[in-house]
Amino acid sequence: MEANFAHDVSRSVRNYAARVDDVTSTVFIIDDDISVRESLEMLIRSAGGESESFASAEEFLAHPRNTVPCCLILDLTLPGLSALELQKRLAERNDVPIIFISGHIDVPRTVEAMKAGAFEFLTKPLRSDVLLKAVHDAIDRSREALSLDAEMRALTNCYESLTPRERDVLTLVVSGLLNKQVGFELGITEATVKAHRGQVMRKMQAGSLPDLVTMATRLGLQAVEQR
User: Fold this and answer.
1) 3-state SS string over the chain?
2) Where in the chain is the domain with CATH 3.40.50.2300?
3) pLDDT in tens, 41-64
4) 161-219: in CATH 1.10.940.10
5) What is the pLDDT of residues 67-120, one digit of tens each?
6) Vertex 96, ends 219 and 41: CA angle to 5°?
7) Structure pTM?
8) What is the Cα–Cα distance from 197 to 177, expressed in whole angstroms?
9) Architecture of domain 2-149
10) Angle of helix 190-204 relative to helix 164-174, nearest 10 degrees?
11) Apex CA 94: angle with CA 150 and CA 101, to 5°?
């Protein structure tokens, strides 16, 4: 494997260094073969990336990890906790794309891994250019997932800052009701509705009604049918 990497590593580094040079991202490597781990770490670091390697899935799970853009290069055949079992344990972490690697084609397990959401599946000997591109794309996927998660947390925090009455107004407004109709539904004056509506727009940081509707949709708020 080392010889295969050495053959084209310099060209791959030139081509992909700009893509993998984000020091805040990390490539995790799990393989029980130390020579494979060392070769992969050398490749990732030569391309300007950060990497951490582990000999087993158990060792990886026991290691604390920061929430940063990342991906996992995972050998399909591991002693102890299997690669597919680890994939199941990470199923809810869409910010950790998994690139499976294997010394031979195992069709049943490959199909199982891909159905379970594997980002990529590569066979050894690995081509460094192909691997680095997969890493680059996986890191991008991770970064997007983390960004969406952060946006959702911020949106949820905004919603939780609303009072119960403001939440009622929000639900009715995004359902298409006019201020007068909202007031009728809640038993309050139109002026009071306008005041609550202004607070909702401010707290939700919505620039317009369409923005507010989009936010409500992302939060999964149920629209109220007009009478």
Assistant:
1) CHHHHHHHHHHHHHHHCCCCCCCCCEEEEECCCHHHHHHHHHHHHHCCCEEEEECCHHHHHHCCCCCCCEEEEEECCCCCCCHHHHHHHCCCCCCCCEEEEECCCCHHHHHHHHHCCCCEEEECCCCHHHHHHHHHHHHHHHHHHHHHHHHHHHHHHHHHCCCHHHHHHHHHHHCCCCHHHHHHHHCCCHHHHHHHHHHHHHHHCCCCHHHHHHHHHHHCCCCCCCC
2) 2-149
3) 999 999 989 999 999 999 999 998
4) no
5) 899 999 999 999 999 999 999 999 988 899 999 999 877 788 888 888 888 999
6) 160
7) 0.77
8) 12
9) 3-Layer(aba) Sandwich (3.40)
10) 90
11) 140
Q: Are 114 and 76 contacting, i.e. CB atoms less than 8 angstroms apart?
A: no
Domain(s) of CATH 1.10.10.10: residues in the chain:
161-219
> Which residues, at least 6 apart from 5, have a Cβ–Cβ distance to it below 8 Å?
39, 42, 43, 126, 128
d(CA 78, CA 128) in angstroms, rounded, equals: 22
